[in-house]
Amino acid sequence: MNVRQLLDERLGEAFGRVTKEWAPALVSPASRPEYGDYQANGAMAVAKRLKTNPRKLAEDVVGASDLTGIVAETEIAGPGFINLTLSQEFLKGTLARAQLVTPAAKPERIVIDYSSPNLAKSLHVGHLRSTVIGDATARTLELLGHTLYRQNHIGDWGTPFGMLVAYLEGQDQSSNDLGDFDHFYALASERFENDPAFAETARKFVVDLQSGKEAALTQWKQFIELSSSHMQRIYDQLNISLNPDHTRGESAYNNDLAQVVTDLDQAGLLSLSDGAKCVFLKEFTGKEGKPLPMLVQKSDGGYLYHTTDLAALRYRHKVLNADRILYFTDGRQNLHFRMLFAVAHASEFVPKSTKLEHHPFGKLLDSTGRPFRSRDGSTIPLAQLVEQAHERARAVVRSKSSNLDEIEFDEVVHAIAIGAIKYADLSKNRLNDYTFDWDSMLAFEGNTAPYLQYAFARIQSLFARGNFDPESYRKDITLENQNERELAVQICRFQETLELVGREAMPHHLCAYLYELTSRFMRFYETCPVLDAPEKDRESRLALCVHTAKTLETGLDCLGIATLTRM
RNA sequence: GCGCCUGUAGCUCAACGGGAUAGAGUAUCGGCCUUCUAAGCCGAGGGUUGAAGGUUCGAGUCCUUCCAGGCGCGCCA
User: Fold this and answer.
1) pLDDT digits (tens, 9 = 90+) for A38-61
2) Cα–Cα distance between A126 and A227 in angstroms, integer?
3) Which nucleotides on chain B have any atom < 7 A from a protein Cβ?
4) Nearest-CA residue to the C1' of B15?
5) Of the candidates A493, A510, A501, A505, which has an alpha carbon nearest to the alpha carbon of residue A555?
6) A315 and A345 in contact (C-beta within 8 Å)?
7) Considering only CA atoms, which residue is closest to the C1' of nucleotide B72?
8) DSSP A415-478
9) Are A470 and A463 in contact (CB under 8 A)?
């Protein structure tokens, strides 16, 4: 249940009754514990508009509101804040519900375009943020009951593929498992540079490919399969929910590109400028105030990524019937997407009712503030990043854990390594540049994935020691002390947090929530004995543990981070 | 030149349609393990929110100007 929304609606109605007009209650979590659980800030703004006393208005609103069974205590504070404290019954009732997450009343069909690497090269750190943030958003929206269409818009077409296919052809097929994918790419481009005959063959491949020659296509497909399996291995390691079904690359739109240009022309949007076909929209200007074109066809007849993106957008509207389309790319593509959306609407390829959202994110920096790269300046493959995380995690787990057999040890190392990489990224507001720092990420102290995993493991340990089956455990909760109560309140805020993340495509809110949940649990755990408590307390506290564990597990699952029963 | 993004504690980051005394983690210092995992808990210090104006009962958040950094602006994606 979305508690914040419930309060906002109830108080909003009261505001309406009192002021005889629409006025938002502006309910948010209380900024300080002494102000209760939630606060409504709407009175001051409305009072000013109506030229009346805000404290008096706040009192009238509280008097006119129906908060029975929800709020135990209200208080008017300061210039007109309404502070709300949830009632014991409400907290108990909310926790007693079998359903942890309430699905959306109006589920949407949501397309989410993320990861989208170019298959000419292996996945590298440049793909990390889009992949990890997009995936967490997708999982969250899916949990909220929406229908998700993950779209991995991979780069699988164009000049580099001629080179790679040509190189692949010259190789002994049996030795080409592409285990060292980047090495393969490097060899191919080196040969392309230094071997004119090879370069000629490669160019011929591109021509053959684009004219649809059967043999070239077969070899191209073979290469794409090879490269895709490399990509899938990385996704699997990182626990990314993308699979081959979600792949719909640039090549999928080849046959529609000419039609896109024709349709733009029919819509009266197409101009010819320096031999290239493009769309001018008056809201976009470039240097010296000149109109800024969006090029859709080069003077040599070739198409551009704008064209492909328009075709993809049309597919997502016409075929997938999307209500909402999200893109996760770095901020540099901001202008591209603004133009893309504007042209899509102007051409009526996509109706205005379809929400088009670009969700940009900042760069990956190293601790000196420079772009995150390896020592020699080259980009870091994700495979290498993952391996390094495992190495570091192995050292820490070895030093901290005992009593883990070999299989468990590997499992713990893997969950911690992957969790650390993803959580470090997900826990930050994506708009900012992000400083990638192994040491703080794998220190495993404070606000990190292992902290959450550790809390979960502690709870599981309680269940194991007490021989409880958390799945079937249903007992009433009584909130006797402050730490129990604060834990319960936080659990009840899960729904509103998920909805916030889904609305804004900002998973860091979920991380902040889970961290707060975990620290409240840790305080509870330190101060409230569970297994050794008297029968009544024991049942209630175990029930609190069950809810905490379930919430943690579900939340971490949204982030694509594994939980552990021991560590 | 025009446009977009960013600037918060030593460091890494929060602050959700403007809200109460700007919060965490880390680092530093001091406490807490014969009792459910110390990867933990409790406490202390640490700030002119890049600068200056303005709007407002109230500004890290909105407006203006400036400073600093990053990115983008026709045939790559």
Assistant:
1) 999 999 999 988 989 999 999 999
2) 17
3) 1-7, 12-17, 19-21, 24-27, 35-37, 39-42, 56-58, 70-77
4) A31
5) A510
6) no
7) A332
8) HHHHHHHHHHHHTS-TTS-EE--HHHHTS--SSSHHHHHHHHHHHHHHHHHHT--TTT------
9) yes
Long-range interactions of A21-30: CB distance < 8 A, separation 24+: A25/A61, A25/A82, A27/A84, A28/A4, A29/A4, A29/A493, A30/A83, A30/A84
CA–C1' distance A304–B76 (Å)? Answer: 9
Cβ neighbourhood burial of A368 (10 Å; 0-12, 13-18, 19+):
exposed
Domains of chain A from N-terminus onward: 3-86 (3.30.1360.70), 159-242 (no CATH), 425-559 (1.10.730.10)
Residue A245 CA and nucleotide B30 C1' are separated, in Å, by 57
Closest C1' nucleotide to A330's CA: B71
Query: Which among A442, A434, A426, A450 is positioned nearest to A389, based on CA atoms?
Result: A442
Residue A17 (CA) to nucleotide B18 (C1'), in angstroms, measures: 25
Q: Are A409 and A415 in contact (CB under 8 A)?
A: no
Buried b vs exposed e over A447-483: b needs ≥16 C-beta within 10 Å? bbbbbbbbbbbbbbebbeeeeeebeeeeeebebeeeb
Nucleotide nearest to A77 (CA to C1'): B20
Å: A434 CA to B14 C1': 14
Q: Which H or E run contains A16? A: helix A3-19
Q: In the block, which residue shows the tokens 């060899």? A: A187
CA-to-C1' distance for A428 and B24, Å?
A: 12
Length of chain A: 567
Look at residue A72 and give its three-state secondary structure: strand
Interface confidence (ipTM) of the complex: 0.96
Per-residue pLDDT at A121: 86
Give the pLDDT band of residue A556 (cuts 50, 70, 90): very high
Strand-pair category, A270-273 with A276-285: antiparallel
**Which phi and psi (to 5°) does residue A160 adopt?**
-60, -30
The spacing between the Cα labelled CA in A551 and the C1' in B62, in angstroms, equals: 37
pLDDT at A117: 95
